[in-house]
């Protein structure tokens, strides 16, 4: 399903294959020989998304850009089932396994592997050829790669990266943080009310 969003229409190379249940919305450019499988969602929320040649986005993966964090995925990269990418730059020949989570402002260089259910956190940089083990968390720049059991170390790094401030422009100490966050984000998402389906 293809949608115009905020006046922008997806641009899809004629050699790319898009499953009928995939959703492509807004300022999205899909390069030659890409494969977008069933249930995948690629949605531009005000910033562009670009997929290079021969990118595979597997079932139920989510790729989302924002006005402040576009998405670029380099050639010959595999985005696994149920993977989530928000506002990140992904190099070529990267393997993102099932269930991985890549957050806003992350930069993953060529040849990296992020294995099953691993996380690359906000504004984290993975140098070329880095491997994030199954279920582990990569955080910071320079990156630290930590097992999930080291929650306190991960949290210490996360606090400095300031997720609510960086992504939503809100101070973590705001007393009604989730009220303000959901109202602000909801207003932004409500712009989809004016989307126009292009293929049906």
Automatic annotation (TrEMBL):
Domain of life from the UniProt record: Bacteria
Signal peptide (UniProt feature, chain positions): none
Gene3D superfamilies linked: Hexapeptide repeat proteins (2.160.10.10)
Name the UniProt record assigns to this protein: Gamma carbonic anhydrase family protein
SUPFAM superfamilies: Trimeric LpxA-like enzymes (SSF51161)
InterPro entries: Transf_Hexapept/Carb_Anhydrase, Trimer_LpxA-like_sf
């Amino acid at each position: 399903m293809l949608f115009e969003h905020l006046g922008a229409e997806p641009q899809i190379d004629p050699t790319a294959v898009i499953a009928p249940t995939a959703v492509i919305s807004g300022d999205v450019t899909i390069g030659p020989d890409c494969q977008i499988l069933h249930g995948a969602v690629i949605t531009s929320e005000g910033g562009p998304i670009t997929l290079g040649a021969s990118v595979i986005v597997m079932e139920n993966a989510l790729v989302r850009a924002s006005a402040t964090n576009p998405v670029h995925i380099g050639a010959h990269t595999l985005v696994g089932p149920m993977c989530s990418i928000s506002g990140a730059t992904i190099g070529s020949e990267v393997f993102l396994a099932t269930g991985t989570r890549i957050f806003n402002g992350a930069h993953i260089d060529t040849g990296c592997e992020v294995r099953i259910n691993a996380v690359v956190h906000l504004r984290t940089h993975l140098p070329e050829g880095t491997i994030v083990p199954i279920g582990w968390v990569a955080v910071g720049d320079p990156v630290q790669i930590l097992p999930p059991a080291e929650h306190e170390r991960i949290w210490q790094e996360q606090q400095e990266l300031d997720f609510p401030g960086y992504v939503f422009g809100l101070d973590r100490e705001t007393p009604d943080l989730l009220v303000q966050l959901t109202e602000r984000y909801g207003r932004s998402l409500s712009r989809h009310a004016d989307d126009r389906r292009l293929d049906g």
